[in-house]
Queue: 4 jobs
Job 1
Amino acid sequence: MKSPFKADILRGKVALLTGGGSGIGFEIATQFGKHGASVAIMGRRIDVLHSAVSTLQSFGIPAVGFEGDVRKKEDAKRVVDSTVKHFGKIDILVNAAAGNFLVSSEDLSPNGFRTVMDIDSVGTFTMCHEALVYLKKGGPGRSSSTGGTILNISATLHYTASWYQIHVSAAKAAVDAITRNLALEWGTDYDIRVNGIAPGPIGDTAGISKLAPEEINSKAREYMPLYKLGEKWDIAMAAVYLASDAGKYINGTTLVVDGGLWLSHPRHLPKEAVKQLSRVVERKSKAAPVGIPTSKL
Ligand code: COA
């Protein structure tokens, strides 16, 4: 699908993306590149990284891949430093690396819980912490008068509660807290904008095939009025918007990109029934003098 943004909206920017070798992270890397940015992608699987970098380069995007695990501080530091060594600076950090699986709280071991917290929450903080020196206004390689920007990929699971996702709900709630607190502290001190994106179910991703196989998807369509799958492109466009100067006054927000899905509830009454019911109730209340209980009417 064609981007509605100008192709040079991110010209001259350097982006580092964790989890950038596949899924949503890769689509953001691709769209950043197509809008003028140079991209460094970080991931654990070297073969996935190689193929992602070749694809990006085949689009004419300056791209490089660095193997690393966001759970390891030394990997985070090495990848951040290598990105700056390769491209001279970092303007945009995207934390898209995540771990997930469906499991009931009863069956989830504390180590399973910790593993997802470590990847999603601690990993996000570690990457932000290592990149800070390069993102802050006046930091190494920064010629512009502003600081860089951070995008944290979150979720909507924790706005309510989600079956068999206690670990991810807790981890993404922490990610949102990181987004707001860094926006406050680093926005004030270093002119760095920190925002998040909370995707709904996105087709053709590891997340959707792991968490919502086809039989769940078709059931969800029956009872959730707003249920429909998004595309990786939808998330990437939100990322381009937030990372570009179009988002220069946006700081500390997590943008929900889910077609309104998290607001969904089953419809208990059809719209026509509500209209009729409402008219009857209104007529009754107009006829009734104030203070007389409706049971007496
Ligand atoms: N159900 C229950 N527990 C699970 C699990 C599952 N499906 N998968 C892993 N765990 C538990 C393990 O049992 C282990 O706990 P234990 O030591 O108490 O037994 C703990 O999690 C760590 O598992 P391990 O396999 O050593 O972790 P890992 O670092 O190799 O893998 C994961 C990390 C678990 C997140 C893995 O699913 C992963 O890397 N996935 C790829 C990324 C991804 O999930 N992307 C989707 C994004 S939506």
Note: The first helix runs from residue 23 to 34.
Job 2
Amino acid sequence: MDTSILLIYTGGTIGMKIDPQTQALAPFDFSHIMEEVPELKKFGYKLDSYSFDPVIDSSDADIPFWQELVRIIEINYNKYDGFVVLHGTDTMSYTASALSFMLENLGKPVIFTGSQLPIGMLRTDGKENLISSIEIAAAKDDEERALVPEVCIYFESQLYRGNRTTKYNAENFRAFRSANYPVLADVGIHIRFNPDLIRYPKWGKDFKVHYDMDPNVAIVKIVPGMSVNNISILNKVEGLRAVILETFGSGNAPTNGKFIDAVRQLVDNGIIVVNVSQCHAGRVDMDAYATGVALKKIGVVSGEDSTIEAALAKLYFLLGKYPDNNDVRVNMSKNIRGEISK
Ligand code: ASP
């Protein structure tokens, strides 16, 4: 049977070209992708495309947008061998993280990609990103199973686990980084997959989708000299169920009584407080310094080596799944989709 891939265009720079009349960048009609990238005809795969209408700048990505993306994958799941999602780079790591939780026991590749320069420009990085993403989405092993049945980001010759990534460069073609997990594949003359690092589903167990996401989460970045009011005011936010503290280094925060009391008050009010480091590489270790021990003692949950994007998406997902915050707290420490090293 022919390999079949569904391209899903959501918006972003990759799908733009210069309008000859206005000289401004504007999205092109995605049904004309074969004319924009004639190289795609050489694949010999069945390539179908679906475009969001309207397309969005990824700054407008939100939960209904993720749900729509999940719905498109769900209804097309049995028809295609893999999915390539074209998405703006700005929030691609958030969307990839969210989908990694929303798609359970995924047996097919969902490869996000985009570009820094529009596909209609001479020096675009979009063509290589798109072509290699399609090849990766189509790659199978000897038993005809997907080589990378994960939600990934492919960008500038590297394939990353989506929920390990962060956009860290607004200009360079290498826009993403996965500081705490190695790449799943390196692309040069050959595509070198690293099978030992790839997560596989329980083959034979059904693919399952989750739509419920609860966004009652706040993120507070700890900075020197901050007022504790920035923490205590959160007790007054109606419906708030979780707070991510972006801490220093290996999970440290001020030790003064006022600060600790304010965090303790949140925990005592049943709010889940998660400790994620401001550092991109390394992990939270609340036993390393007295400053971390104090947080652990009052019931703050370790975010381990999670990115902020993955911690946020995981909380939305767990809060959507469990009405009881205790269940969320317990599951927050578990490795669910390879988002933390544990
Ligand atoms: N602002 C754009 C977006 O994220 C940038 C890009 O496409 O890379 O949608």
Note: The radius of gyration is 21 Å.
Job 3
Amino acid sequence: MPTLRLPGLVDVHVHMRDPGATHKEDWDTGTAAALAGGITAVLAMPNTAPPIADAESFDGALAQARKKARCDYAQFLGAGPETKGAVFHAAERAAGLKMYLDQTFGPLRLDEMTLWAEAIEQWPRDLPIAIHAESRTLAAAVLMAHLYDRPLHLCHVSTREEILLIRKAKERGVPVTCEVCPHHLFLSQADIPRIGEGRAEVRPRLAAPEDQAALWENLDIIDVFATDHAPHTLAEKDGENPPPGFPGLETALPLLLTAVGEGRLTLEDIISRMHENPRRIFNLPEQPHTWIEVDPDAEWEIRGEAQLTRCGWTPFEGKNVRGKVKKVVLRGSTAYENGKVIVRTGYGRNLRENPSEEP
Ligand code: DOR
Ligand code: ZN
Ligand code: ZN
């Protein structure tokens, strides 16, 4: 098959670790990894150190991004237990509001229902909200979308009960959208022995093979494929208290293209879930003169060592895939070609800033 040209992919769920844990990743290495994976825009999560839950930390993260990012981006604000009005001033400049209803990496967690209601009531109705919720809290989030009649985007759906609940909700017109991560599509608990217990820690956890199968059976309900790229170093993953999370920026598209080759997905499924739907749900501007070129027949082996992410490993180590990103053109410039990132740090632009306002 000849080279394929696809639109620049958008990853709505990425942890950049900048500021606070740049030994794991920063805006430079994270966006270089994105480009290598055919991703031209990333939405960055707020569970950094400090967490991005006030105007000051928000501006601090954006200052790093402005200096270092190589692809386009926007930054989420996090609703923390102490978040008050201040964060809502920056609403228009944020990718959206991220609400953590369950415990995960970092201190941003809202464990009282009153806090959920307050955040939903205060955040402007027309701006996106993304929710980390699992199982019963996900059911509560669906109910909130219904009661407030306001769109909520449900992150990293991973189980049969969740995807079937979302199907029911959508059938009843509840305004929810959802994303699924490649690691929940391509891995399950059955892979934990091979990956290793500590390395396999991720939230939501790798699920049962039946859950994995249910995601594939309900593809029509999945609006978005997002990586939840959550880099931690191997020393951390193999240490005493392994933090949860997998890198994913460089493996998502090759895994999905391999599934296309196997007849389990279509290219259109990828384009809708990594370009069209993310843009619509998060109201992102078009990236003009932006596309990626892919060799659909190139066969290669995934190796953590060869990745551009700073974390230096992958749960897909040794997996053979078919489909390789050859070239990425971002706003008219060749950003990546044949294994090399070409654009400089600082080339990436904030998708929530008007180009004329940029310094
Ligand atoms: O596995 C995860 N890692 N799940 C999350 O929700 C957070 C993430 C992280 O930031 O490391
Ligand atoms: Zn999460
Ligand atoms: Zn995440």
Note: The mean pLDDT is 95.
Job 4
Amino acid sequence: MPNYKKGDVIALGSDHGGFRLKQEIIKHLEEKGIEFKDFGSYTSDSVDYPEIAEKVCNSVAAGQTVLGILVCGTGIGMSMAANKCKGIRAAACSETFSAKFTRLHNDANVLCLGGRVIGPGVALEMVDSFIGTDFEGGRHERRVNAIMEIENK
Ligand code: RB5
């Protein structure tokens, strides 16, 4: 149950399509005093998103970082790659309700955003909801466990 508490580290990653938005997220987390580890990309040069997704997800799955945020052009490629990584429940979201409920109900540990889809205002609101919402547990725990059993089959 990876609920965020003060002092925990958030893993960040983007490709070139998400680089600008990732930099906005970095500024936002710094202003809020939330610690993060940036797994790149560090420039807007073209880069393949699966390798960044894998680095972020390995860190989350190993417990070195509590939650991850991945940004590509649509958020979709990053989420596809992230959901191939063991222990990862990644959600591609475009509005705040989903970003909040994917923590509450799915215990999502990686949020995927589309730098070419949403503006920074909505994106930062989603980041706050995602980090600031705890998993509800209860009946949702059984369902999340059932999701995780699929990757062991
Ligand atoms: C890169 O051009 C783009 O394909 C990538 O950022 C992402 O949107 C893929 O899903």
Note: Residues 15, 17, 49, 72-74, 76-77 surround D-ribose (CB under 6 Å).
